[in-house]
């Protein structure tokens, strides 16, 4: 679904990722790991066509990203970023409904088929009880799930999420990532999310993409753990990654 | 169930606001120094006035004023909503881009600098205050649009627009300081705003220009709904952000620029009425909000017009700007306090 062909990414003058290749497929969930400032967000933005490539090319559904219009891309990739949307007098239902924009006419009028997709997305994301609430009264965790419902309403084969778990407490983090896993395995979507939650990423996702500056390592989760790259990257004077239990320990 | 109830409620509100506009418009035409019977005013709406002097007063004086009030109110409110959504800032109004400064710069040059330097150019007087104000606001628009092609961040554009406006205001201040007493008065009178300066002939330019701006605002409703989510979200939802930005800037200048040119800078209507629309219709969907804001704007201007007419009967002339401020400021304070309490 999403193919990186020898891409090079930079933030300003600083090169983040060089000559990286990977192929993210439908039906699988990939966690994007890396240290702060390694370029996780920059990579996601590049795939969503919000940033430029320094080199190489990205293919979405077999077509070069540069040949796709905004409108075409919006039907292939949904992006949930870290921005908290807080709009006065907007209900969660209205917010999810904006996800139908790529399919509606000039005025954005919703047909009954659009309402069906919206209601289905709300159900899958488990936010039925929030539908009539105003978004500026939602908690961060509730808002995050509503944003995922919006991405679902966009009805795209691929969903990108930039640190979807960052505002959530521990049970909610697991719950959210389980939901993302279901989207990949039951709905057949290509799910790619960046996170700092090592244990969640390693227990729930099919593949790991690891930004090991300036490389991007990409392999199935078990292989990644066996490769020792995670230990190396997250090693610090204070903590140590234990591959056998897939968790972090204090030294 | 709940959603269909809301739909009925909103339809009723639309009907009520439309009725309010008609009633206020008729009331506006009734009040003035000459008493005209209600029957004559109502029948004037479809051209059936019996007395010639009534016809003159209604068609040449009161009706233009009422039409200007309705369209100016709709224009200011619509452009205020455009700016509030584009900048995602509840305190944005039609003038955040500096359109009023551009217009006032044009008028200041015309009323203050031209007599000062004794420039003798008859064509300048043909353009008039309206023309120079329009040229001034269009110049500001071009500058802001040129900037926005180079600058991605909308908040940077907002800051630049405000700074540009402040710099121009400073130059206007210098002109005011140097102007003669007589020309200064002409300028000050313009800044106070007036609905009665538009002649019937000028209406043929004023109304179509504003209508084009209103149509553009309605065309932009889908992009506005997407822009509520922030620019990068709007882009990943498939929006051509640059194109919609251009349409929104263009609509704002046509609306706020035209009104400012003909009526002077009228404050607070464009800032307050979109809030009132949001509060009464309880929605953020611009397909409802945009027409709602327009109707509220029309009602507000008609109300101010009516108030100033009523007060004028006691031989006290209040500039429109003072009334719009007295009406708008409490609404804005109310909205701000209410939002604070809810969070």
Q: What keyword list fits this structure?
A:
A: alpha/beta; Rossmann fold; 4-stranded antiparallel beta sheet; 9 helices; B: mainly alpha; ABC transporter involved in vitamin B12 uptake, BtuC; 14 helices; globular
Q: Can I get a quick summary?
A:
The complex is a heterodimer of chains A (about 250) and B (about 350). Chain A is about 35% helix and about 25% strand.
What does this structure look like?
The complex is a heterodimer of chains A (251) and B (343). Chain A is α/β, with parallel strands linked by helices and 251 residues long. Chain A has a domain at 1-69 and 196-251: Rossmann fold (3-Layer(aba) Sandwich), CATH 3.40.50. In chain A, 33% of the residues lie in helices and 27% in strands. Chain A is built from nine helices and twelve strands. Chain A has helices spanning 40-47, 70-74, 92-98, 112-124, 140-153, 170-185, 198-204, 221-227, 229-233, and strands at residues 2-11, 14-24, 29-34, 55-60, 63-64, 77-80, 158-162, 190-194, 207-212, 215-220, 239-242, 247-250. Chain A has a six-stranded mixed β-sheet, sandwiched between helices. In chain A, strand 9 (207-212) and strand 10 (215-220) form a beta hairpin. The longest helix of chain A is centred in the C-terminal third of the chain and has 16 residues, at 170-185. Chain A is globular and about 55 Å long. The model of chain A has no long low-confidence stretch (mean pLDDT 92). Chain B has 343 residues and is an all-alpha fold. Chain B has a single domain (2-342), classed as ABC transporter involved in vitamin B12 uptake, BtuC (Orthogonal Bundle). Chain B is 80% helix and 0% strand. Chain B contains 14 helices and no strands. The longest helix of chain B is centred in the first third of the chain and has 35 residues, at 52-86. The relative contact order of chain B is 0.15. The mean pLDDT of chain B is 87. Chain A binds chain B through residues 45, 48-50, 69-75, 77-79, 81, 83, 85, 87-90, 93-95, 98-99, 101-102, 104, 106-109, 132, 136-137, 154, and chain B through 2-3, 90, 219, 221-222, 225-226, 228-230, 232-233, 235-240, 278-279, 281-285, 287, 339, 342-343.
